[in-house]
């Protein structure tokens, strides 16, 4: 279980998270939704230790990880699909996937099995394994980013807008995959702009606004909450 | 002509080695380290001291000196590059900082070892075993052999091993590398240590034939940088080719055309090469797309 | 189709990267004052098509004509004065500059550079600067972000940056605006805002070519849609035609389980 | 009220600068100030090139050299008056800028650095080896004192005003350029040249322009330098000198014109002040460089900006 | 300060030299020798009531820095006379300053011809006279060794280039054939291309003009290439280090110098002994010249009994009858010391041995 208590964080002199608390149940999908600039990405980066928290605690498996280095956090089975893909542009697709498994100490065969599994999930990656990742199309890169993160065999996956830039049919697939990996026992914290989609997939959800959690509840509760409906399900 | 080309080879091997140390650090940290030439000098002096004061032989001196200079590299990473990174300083600041390092190392060396040139005896002979067109001296063979050996090792490390790939990943996207669980700080440290050690190795290899002076880093550093860039910064085969390319061009131009304008002509050729291949001989602009 | 309706004709465009045929004999006609959607699976070649139109990539064959005149092979910046402006799939703003300056760069081709007047800070140069600034502010206002004019771009949120990029393209006063996934990563209310903006631009007489994966948005707003798959146009037509096309469903839209889940709600 | 204060302050600074030679009677200080003034012109140009347009140059000493030699030779060999000579020198330097910009516009990062280093070295080696014209390693001696409208400039004090005029002129031109559409376009190219191109900016022309402009600043500075020092040799224009210019530009802050001025003055003066440390002074200089780029990432001007911002913030709170 | 002077007569000597940078070894050698000389003179009251005080500034071998340093010495340290500098380019820049300020300047290191050709009455030179050296070397090569085909191989700096010119003149004068005249840049490491050219043109001798590091490398590399030539050099490279670095490749190298540590001359012996005592190393020739320069100044102030620049200048010009380490200095109209001793020496084992000595007057 990931438990975030009252964390605050910011960039330089400006604080953008003002005491965020949320809980991600093990084996469940939890979603975090909110407007642009609300602090979703910042929250995920705090969990990863990329952005240092100014206060509060983040516990995972009963350990405060808020002071750990990112490499340590990854080593504890947490992985992030970053916003904006962040693939390694001058490495091949295959090398990118290998980097996803950087922190694993598993046997080579097991990693190879996982690689086969990921390539099956995204056949386009299989057919392009030698292409430089930087020349892939936007959506292809997104798939690569997802695949790369799965290569780490994480227990907790933080997803920052995984559906961004994907064709509808692939969005379906990605959400299928999300459910699949949840069924494999993994824990997921999902950040999505597509709130309807996120909430209808999630067990529990949080709404963040201007660096504060303003609403929480089960996916269905939030989906039916008129405030949420007005602010986040629009269009 | 042929003899000029052949005579360019040992010089080329040295340039290649120094080029490699630039390339390595660039491939892993995207840093242009202007103090690289001074690592060569420092390595040579450490080797010299080990030999003079402690009477150590060539091989132990080589390895100890590589280790000592690697430590200096780590120190630079820790005390200079790390704070620069934390403050997200632009690349030009890193260049200026390493320029500062270069000035410091050079003048510290001047204080310690004085202004005179020093001689580090060769473990093998510097006299030719065969004269004529090919002037092969054992020392030159040593340079080329040890140099090539190091280059092959590093090509392997960088391209084939997981850690090597991790270093490249760090250079391409630090944030992404971080969330892969790569310790980017450590990667920087490793890159600085290794390329400093490479520089030291170059220093010890050339000291027996070129002597050691506190400002030898300037010339050799610049030539090594030229070789690295012309081959394609970050590419091991590029650095090697670049090194030999410069070595041979210098020999041919210096012997056949004009010794005074030798470096000028070399630079004109280089600029022409870059004009035709803006990322060096061995790199294509790959992985770029709008 | 009457000629005057047509503004852009893409004919037989093919592009190949190494062994990969990314665009294969593309024919698309875009009508004046319409919003033309381009959709298709990831990697279909949509962005590549944009790159060809804006001169960043040279096609292996085929022609593109604007208002009946074939476009010459020129530098990308020269195409801007012919009437094209674009946004990028990965935001490409001038990050360390202010929002206003970013948008004023969009004005580049419309602002003369009177060197002498600049030197003496003369009337002429001040006038041009003033006009450029006003126009830029106007574009920002149109996007609804004029209060961010003095902010450095890197301090803006993703959604706001997308709007700045849009404003910058608008400032070039093009005949055709090419938008590459403008809504990606945007919050629903901002999407609604975007839809509104695009609508108003159509009213103003602009022609817009839009790449987008948000079907709700595309179907709502586009007059015509071309669907690309594997570098080929598999179908074109009005939104309702495209939506129900079997090929489009199987290659792109899918069963729509999750997308439909959302559609149900509205 | 506030505005009055500002104007008063500006007038005070102007008067202070204008009367400097009157109360600095130590000619050594004046000499250093004059030298810094000449360097200012180089760094201003370099800031337009490296800071604004993002084209790092490590070969600025080459342009400086061309300006010095051409102007001096015009005066010495053809008896051209000073002003004409430095104009010819500046034009010649501009031509060099044009030539180097052709390969340079295709390059970036270390590749560009190398090309500019190459240019600097090529220039120096030509000066060294083209003996019939450049007098080789010995260089030019007896470069005549400048004479402007019958007034002969010989003393440090007179040079002060001559250099001041050019610095003011140069600063004015640079500021105008920087604040205009041209400066804005330069910055856009620095940030993302592809996006700039896609917005209609003829990127290559602007890169050429940046090179030519920065070359002209360096060339003008060179013309003054030759007349000021009376001698010039290839040793004045080494790679180390190019590096020193770059350091001035970065240490002062290369994204503003003021930064160039600050950098030239501060580094020139500091390296003289450090003379008291004798043997360790270069080591200290190295540490100063490192310290500044770490703790003042935007240069001295960046610090001033921060202070200003804080001051404003505090004032706001008080008000 | 005038009241101070009346109590104790102080003569301030400003010394500029490259104590760091590429020619640091020359600048530091100069500094050590000047310090030694000043101490002796003060201790032994060799300048009568005058006490010498030396102020040192580093110019890094950079002419601009050099002229700033000279300015500082004159304006701030109020020196009465300047010893500056080693690199000709620096000396030329300093001369502008000293002339403007009207302060006498003596250069113990710079050999560039143009220095004393400018009609500047404030400059003096105690450096070795290169034209005598070139002449003596070529003459010796022809008359004593019977060499006919020669090459010059010179540094591209001012020292090397003026050397090249003087050598060429001498070679023509004595009717030898110059078959190749390549140059190198200071800091170069590889000289084989030029050496191959020299070899292929059939030279019997190479006249080098430059500093010891490069000279040693040239010796080594010509041995590696199997060149069968006699090497010649001039005072710029005369240093114990040349023997050390050149190893057996430098054996037999013939060079001219003004100062030979082992020479059987009382002043030389004394100087070398004192220098070794103080610094535990051999002095360099430039050091000897700088040492003598201080003595010339001391003599001048003693004679003039004034620290007024003009009086000093005239006294220096009239220097006479001094028996110093590198000869008995006398200055000609241009300010060149024409009283230098000139020695042709040969590297033999671990030291230079004397072949011939000239008094150049
Ligand atoms: N690197 C940064 N430097 C300064 N401010 C930043 C930085 N990154 C984000 N911010 C600011 O922090 C706030 C929160 O940003 P964050 O990226 O966490 O929002 P978000 O909820 O992920 O938004 P979006 O949906 O647009 O991705 C925003 O106001 C943003 O401008
Ligand atoms: N330089 C290149 N080298 C090799 N393949 C490339 C290159 N550029 C693009 N491609 C390939 O061309 C195909 C089309 O890319 P494009 O970016 O046009 O797709 P897209 O339709 O915009 O996709 P998306 O919706 O995911 O952005 C992709 O499969 C991509 O991998
Ligand atoms: C012998 C050398 C030290 C001479 C000095 N390099 C000069 O320029 O004159
Ligand atoms: Mg975000
Ligand atoms: Mg795309």
Automatic annotation (TrEMBL), chain A:
Domain spans labelled ABC transporter: 2-235
Gene3D superfamilies per record: P-loop containing nucleotide triphosphate hydrolases
InterPro entries: AAA+_ATPase, ABC_branched_ATPase_LivF/BraG, ABC_transporter-like_ATP-bd, ABC_transporter-like_CS, BCAA_Transport_ATP-bd_LivF, P-loop_NTPase
GO biological process, alphabetically ordered: L-amino acid transport
Coiled-coil spans in chain: none
Key words of the record: Amino-acid transport, ATP-binding, Nucleotide-binding, Transport
CDD domains (UniProt xref): ABC_TM1139_LivF_branched
Molecular-function annotations in GO: ATP binding; ATP hydrolysis activity; branched-chain amino acid transmembrane transporter activity
Family indicated by similarity: Belongs to the ABC transporter superfamily.
Name of the protein this chain belongs to: ABC transporter ATP-binding protein
Species: Acidilutibacter cellobiosedens
TrEMBL record, chain B:
Annotated GO MF terms: transmembrane transporter activity
Localisation: Cell membrane
Pfam families to which the protein is assigned, alphabetical: BPD_transp_2
Any one biological process term the GO annotation gives: amino acid transport
InterPro entries: ABC_BtuC-like, ABC_transp_permease, BCAA_transport_permease
Cellular component, GO, one term: plasma membrane
Gene3D superfamilies named in the record: ABC transporter involved in vitamin B12 uptake, BtuC
The family this protein is said to belong to: Belongs to the binding-protein-dependent transport system permease family. LivHM subfamily.
Protein name per UniProt: Branched-chain amino acid ABC transporter permease
Native source species: Acidilutibacter cellobiosedens
UniProt lineage: Bacteria, Bacillati, Bacillota, Tissierellia, Tissierellales
Automatic annotation (TrEMBL), chain C:
Residue ranges of domain ABC transporter in the record: 8-255
Top-level taxon in the UniProt lineage: Bacteria
UniProt xrefs under InterPro entries: AAA+_ATPase, ABC_AA/LPS_Transport, ABC_transporter-like_ATP-bd, ABC_transporter-like_CS, BCA_ABC_TP_C, P-loop_NTPase
Keywords: ATP-binding, Nucleotide-binding, Transport
Keyword DNA-binding: no
Entry GO CC: plasma membrane
Keyword Repressor carried by entry: no
UniProt xrefs under SMART domains: AAA
Transmembrane segments: none
Single Gene Ontology MF annotation: ATP hydrolysis activity
PROSITE patterns tied to this protein: ABC_TRANSPORTER_1, ABC_TRANSPORTER_2
A GO biological process held by the record: L-alanine transport
Descriptive protein name: ABC transporter ATP-binding protein
TrEMBL record, chain D:
Protein topology in the membrane: Multi-pass membrane protein
Residue ranges crossing the lipid bilayer per the database entry: 7-24, 30-49, 61-78, 84-104, 111-130, 159-178, 208-231, 243-270, 282-304
Pfam families xref list: BPD_transp_2 (PF02653)
Record keywords: Cell membrane, Membrane, Transmembrane, Transmembrane helix
Any GO MF annotation of the entry: branched-chain amino acid transmembrane transporter activity
Cellular compartments annotated: Cell membrane
GO cellular component, one term: plasma membrane
PANTHER family: HIGH-AFFINITY BRANCHED-CHAIN AMINO ACID TRANSPORT PROTEIN BRAE, HIGH-AFFINITY BRANCHED-CHAIN AMINO ACID TRANSPORT SYSTEM PERMEASE
Protein name listed in UniProt: Branched-chain amino acid ABC transporter permease
Species name: Acidilutibacter cellobiosedens
């Amino acid at each position: 279980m990931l438990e975030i208590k009252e964390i605050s964080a910011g960039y330089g002199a400006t604080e953008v998270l003002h005491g965020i608390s949320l809980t991600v149940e093990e084996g469940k999908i939890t979603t975090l939704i909110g407007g642009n600039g609300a602090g979703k990405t910042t929250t995920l980066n705090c969990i990863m230790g990329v952005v240092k928290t100014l206060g509060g605690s983040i516990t995972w498996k009963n350990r405060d990880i808020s002071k750990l280095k990112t490499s340590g956090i990854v080593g504890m089975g947490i992985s992030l699909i970053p916003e904006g893909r962040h693939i390694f542009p001058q490495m091949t697709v295959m090398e990118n996937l290998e980097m996803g498994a950087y922190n694993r100490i598993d046997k080579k065969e097991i990693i190879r099995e996982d690689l086969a599994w990921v390539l099956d999930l995204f056949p386009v990656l299989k057919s392009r394994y030698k292409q430089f990742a930087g020349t892939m199309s936007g959506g292809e890169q997104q798939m690569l980013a997802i695949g790369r993160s799965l290569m780490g065999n994480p227990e907790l996956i933080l997803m920052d807008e995984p559906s961004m830039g994907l064709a509808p049919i692939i969005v379906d697939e990605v959400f299928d995959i999300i459910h699949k990996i949840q069924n494999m026992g993994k824990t997921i914290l999902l950040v999505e702009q597509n709130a309807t989609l996120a909430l209808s997939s999630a067990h529990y959800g949080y709404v963040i606004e201007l660096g504060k959690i303003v609403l929480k509840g089960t996916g269905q509760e939030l989906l039916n909450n008129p405030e949420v409906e007005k602010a986040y399900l629009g269009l | 002509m042929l003899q000029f080309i052949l005579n360019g080879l040992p010089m080329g091997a040295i340039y290649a080695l120094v080029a490699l140390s630039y390339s390595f650090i660039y491939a892993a940290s995207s840093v242009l380290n202007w103090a690289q030439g001074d690592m060569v000098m420092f390595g040579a002096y450490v080797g010299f001291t080990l030999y003079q004061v402690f009477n150590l032989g060539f091989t132990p001196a080589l390895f100890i000196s590589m280790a000592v200079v690697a430590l200096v590299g780590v120190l630079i990473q820790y005390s200079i590059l790390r704070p620069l990174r934390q403050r997200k300083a632009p690349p030009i600041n890193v260049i200026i900082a390493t320029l500062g390092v270069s000035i410091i190392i050079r003048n510290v060396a001047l204080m310690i070892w004085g202004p005179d040139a020093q001689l580090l005896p060769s473990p093998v002979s510097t006299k030719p075993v065969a004269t004529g067109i090919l002037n092969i001296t054992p020392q030159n063979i040593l340079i080329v052999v040890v140099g090539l050996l190091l280059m092959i090792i590093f090509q392997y490390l960088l391209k084939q091993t997981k850690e090597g790939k991790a270093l490249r990943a760090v250079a391409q996207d630090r944030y992404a590398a971080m969330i892969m669980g790569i310790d980017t700080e450590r990667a920087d440290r490793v890159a600085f240590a290794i390329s400093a050690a490479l520089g030291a190795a170059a220093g010890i290899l050339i000291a027996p034939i070129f002597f050691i002076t506190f400002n030898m880093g300037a010339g050799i550093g610049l030539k090594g940088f030229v070789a690295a860039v012309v081959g394609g910064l970050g590419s091991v085969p590029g650095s090697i080719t670049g090194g030999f390319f410069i070595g041979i061009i210098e020999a041919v131009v210096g012997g056949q055309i004009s010794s005074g304008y030798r470096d000028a002509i070399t630079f004109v050729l280089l600029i022409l090469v870059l004009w035709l291949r803006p990322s060096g001989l061995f790199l294509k602009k790959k992985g770029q797309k709008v | 189709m009457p000629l005057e309706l047509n503004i852009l004709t893409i004919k037989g465009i093919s592009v190949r990267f190494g062994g990969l045929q990314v665009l294969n004999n593309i024919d698309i006609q875009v009508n004046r004052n319409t919003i033309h959607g381009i959709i298709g699976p990831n990697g279909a070649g949509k962005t590549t098509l944009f790159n060809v139109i804006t001169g960043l990539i040279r096609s292996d064959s085929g022609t593109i004509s604007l208002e009946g005149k074939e476009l010459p092979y020129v530098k990308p910046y020269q195409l801007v004065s012919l009437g094209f402006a674009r946004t990028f799939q990965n935001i490409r703003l001038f990050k360390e500059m202010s929002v206003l300056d970013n948008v004023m760069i969009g004005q580049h081709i419309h602002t003369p550079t009177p060197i002498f007047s600049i030197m003496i800070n003369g009337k002429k140069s001040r006038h041009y600067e003033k006009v450029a600034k006003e126009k830029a502010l106007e574009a920002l206002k149109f996007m609804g972000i004029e209060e961010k004019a003095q902010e450095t771009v890197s301090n803006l949120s993703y959604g706001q940056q997308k709007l700045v990029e849009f404003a910058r393209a608008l400032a070039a006063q093009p005949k055709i605006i090419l938008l590459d996934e403008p809504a990606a990563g945007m919050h629903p209310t901002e999407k609604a805002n975007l839809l509104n903006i695009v609508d108003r631009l159509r009213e103003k007489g602009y022609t817009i070519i839009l790449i987008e994966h948000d079907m709700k948005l595309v179907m709502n707003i586009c007059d015509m849609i071309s669907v690309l798959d594997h570098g080929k146009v598999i179908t074109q037509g009005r939104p309702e035609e495209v939506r129900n096309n079997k090929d489009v469903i199987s290659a792109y839209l899918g069963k729509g389980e999750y997308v439909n889940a959302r559609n149900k709600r509205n | 009220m506030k505005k009055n204060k500002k104007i008063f302050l500006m007038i005070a600074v102007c008067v202070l600068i204008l009367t400097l030679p009157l109360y600095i009677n130590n000619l050594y200080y004046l000499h250093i100030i004059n030298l810094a003034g000449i360097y200012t012109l180089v760094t201003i140009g370099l800031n337009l090139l490296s800071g604004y347009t993002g084209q790092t140059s490590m070969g600025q000493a080459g342009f400086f050299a061309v300006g010095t030699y051409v102007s001096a030779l015009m005066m010495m060999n053809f008896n051209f008056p000073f002003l004409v000579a430095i104009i010819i020198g500046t034009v010649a330097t501009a031509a060099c800028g044009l030539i180097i910009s052709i390969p340079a516009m295709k390059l970036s990062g270390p590749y560009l650095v190398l090309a500019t280093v190459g240019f600097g070295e090529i220039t120096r080696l030509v000066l060294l080896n083209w003996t019939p014209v450049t007098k080789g390693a010995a260089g030019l001696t007896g470069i005549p004192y400048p004479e402007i409208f019958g007034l002969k400039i010989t003393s440090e004090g007179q040079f002060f005003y001559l250099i001041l005029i050019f610095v003011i002129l140069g600063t004015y031109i640079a500021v105008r350029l920087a604040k205009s559409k041209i400066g804005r376009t330069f910055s856009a190219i620095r940030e993302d040249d592809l996006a700039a191109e896609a917005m209609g900016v003829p990127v290559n022309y602007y890169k050429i322009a940046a090179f030519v402009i920065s070359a002209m600043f360096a060339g003008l500075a060179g013309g003054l330098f030759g007349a000021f020092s009376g001698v010039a040799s290839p040793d004045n224009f080494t790679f180390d000198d190019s590096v020193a210019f770059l350091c001035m530009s970065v240490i002062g802050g290369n994204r503003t014109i003021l930064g160039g001025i600050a950098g030239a003055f501060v580094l020139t003066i500091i390296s003289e002040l450090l003379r008291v440390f004798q043997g360790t002074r270069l080591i200290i200089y190295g540490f100063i460089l490192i310290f500044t780029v770490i703790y003042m990432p935007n240069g001295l001007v960046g610090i001033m900006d921060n202070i200003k911002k804080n001051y404003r913030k505090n004032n706001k709170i008080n008000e | 300060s005038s009241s101070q002077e009346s109590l104790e007569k102080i003569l301030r000597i400003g010394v500029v030299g490259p104590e760091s940078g590429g020619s640091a070894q020359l600048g530091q050698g100069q500094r050590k020798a000047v310090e030694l000389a000043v101490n002796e003179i003060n201790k032994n009251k060799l300048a009568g009531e005058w006490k010498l005080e030396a102020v040192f500034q580093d110019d890094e071998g950079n002419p601009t820095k050099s002229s700033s340093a000279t300015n500082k010495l004159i304006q701030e340290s109020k020196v009465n006379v300047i010893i500056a500098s080693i690199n000709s380019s620096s000396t030329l820049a300093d001369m502008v300053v000293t002339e403007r300020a009207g302060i006498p300047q003596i250069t113990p290191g710079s050999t560039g011809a143009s220095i004393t050709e400018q009609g500047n009455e404030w400059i003096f030179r105690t450096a070795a006279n290169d034209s005598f050296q070139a002449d003596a070397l070529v003459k010796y090569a022809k008359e004593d060794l019977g060499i006919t085909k020669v090459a010059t191989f010179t540094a591209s700096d001012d020292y090397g280039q003026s050397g090249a010119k003087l050598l060429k003149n001498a070679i023509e004068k004595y009717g030898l054939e110059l078959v190749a005249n390549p140059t190198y840049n200071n800091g170069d490491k590889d000289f084989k291309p030029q050496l191959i050219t020299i070899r292929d043109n059939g030279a019997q001798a190479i006249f080098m003009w430059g500093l010891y590091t490069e000279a040693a490398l040239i010796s080594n590399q010509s041995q590696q290439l199997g060149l069968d030539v006699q090497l010649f050099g001039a005072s710029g490279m005369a240093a114990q280090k040349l023997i050390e670095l050149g190893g057996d490749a430098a054996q037999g190298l013939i060079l001219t110098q003004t100062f030979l540590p082992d020479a059987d001359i009382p002043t030389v012996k004394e100087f070398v002994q004192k220098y070794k005592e103080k610094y535990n190393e051999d002095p360099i020739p430039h050091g000897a010249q700088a040492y003598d320069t201080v003595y010339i100044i001391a003599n001048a102030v003693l004679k003039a009994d004034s620290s007024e620049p003009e009086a000093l200048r005239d006294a220096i010009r009239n220097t006479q009858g001094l028996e110093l380490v590198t000869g008995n200095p006398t200055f000609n109209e241009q300010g060149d010391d024409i009283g230098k001793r000139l020695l042709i020496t040969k590297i033999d084992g671990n030291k230079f041995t004397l072949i011939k000595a000239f008094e150049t007057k």
